[in-house]
Each structure stands twice: as C-alpha cells, then as structure tokens.
Amino acid sequence: ILLLLAGGILAVRHMEHVVKVYGTRSRRYRKLFKYHRFSYAFLSGVAGAQSVLFAKSLDELLISSFSGDSKIFLAHFGSYLIAFCMFSSIGLQIYWLNCALSQWDALYVVPVFQA
Predict the structure, then answer these.
(1) Would you say residue 90 has pLDDT above 90?
(2) Residue 82: count of CB within 10 angstroms of its CB
(3) How far is residue 47's CA from residue 63's CA, in Å, rounded to a whole number?
(4) What's the burial of 29, exposed, middle or buried (CB within 10 Å: 0-12/13-18/19+)?
(5) CB-based contacts of 38, cutoff 8 Å, min separation 6
(6) pTM for this structure?
(7) For 21-30, what is each residue's pLDDT tens digit?
(8) Which of 12, 1, 11, 6 is nearest to 100 (CA)?
(9) φ/ψ of residue 4, rounded to 5
(10) Could you write out the DSSP letters of every residue in 13-50?
(11) CA separation (Å) from 28 to 20, 32, 49?
C-alpha cells in the first residue's frame, strides 16, 4: 500500500511539473490529462480505505481492552502507532480530495473517489 501511495504521489508531482513547464494546452499534457484527473481521487480513495482499516484495528483494540481479554491497550507502542496512522490517513484523504475538487468537477471526482 505504501508503494502504491508513493507511486501515486510521484506521478502527481510529475504531472504537476509538466503543467508548470509546458502548460495545459501542450501535447505532452494532453496525454496525461485523464490520468491527472484520476490520480487525485485515486490517492484520496486509497488513503480513505486505509483509514477504515486503521479505525477497525483501533476498535478491536478498544473492545478487547474493555472486555478484559488483554491488558490496557494504551500500554503498547503499537496502539499509538495505529492511532497515528488512522488520523494521518484521514488527513491525507481529506487533503487529496480537496485538491481534486479544487481543480476538477465533483461529477468526475466523487464517483472515482467512491469506487
């Protein structure tokens, strides 16, 4: 998943560089246009999926802690790591979705994000 996100971020940076250097009307950007629109919603969707995964993991830790099956979950470093990853992925999801909506129409961005 991290490689997928890193590759997506590198692709977005490359497409933004092409826009800055050559402009949106260049032949080079026209080849990248459909991928550029897709990439922001794709990154937001992947980050959103990870936030659900981390939220479920944190929920399971809380449930097992309150049921008495294990020790207090706050005593372990992994619990903090899961909580940090959950909040980070939520922040990244909102950031990439806002980037997509600031550049393109919601009729394209939202269905790609939801898929």
Answers:
(1) yes
(2) 20
(3) 24
(4) middle
(5) 112
(6) 0.79
(7) 998 888 888 8
(8) 12
(9) -65, -45
(10) HHHHHHHHHH-TTSHHHHHHHHHHHHHHHHHHHHHHHH
(11) 12, 7, 32
Tokens matching residue 17: 């560089």
Q: Could you tell me the maximum CA-CA distance found in the chain, to the nearest angstrom?
A: 63
pLDDT confidence of 75, banded at 50, 70, 90? confident
How many angstroms separate the CA atoms of 84 and 114, rounded?
A: 24
Residue 82 tokens, joined: 């899961």
Two structure tokens written together for 93:
């999801």
- Is residue 45 within 8 A of residue 8, CB to CB? The reply is no
Q: State both tokens at 104.
A: 């393109």
Torsion-angle region of 26 (φ positive above 0: left; ψ -120 to 50: alpha; else: beta): beta
| DSSP helix/strand/coil, 40 | helix
Helix, coil or strand: residue 1: coil
Q: How many CB atoms are located within 10 Å of the residue 28 CB?
A: 11
Amino acid at 99: C
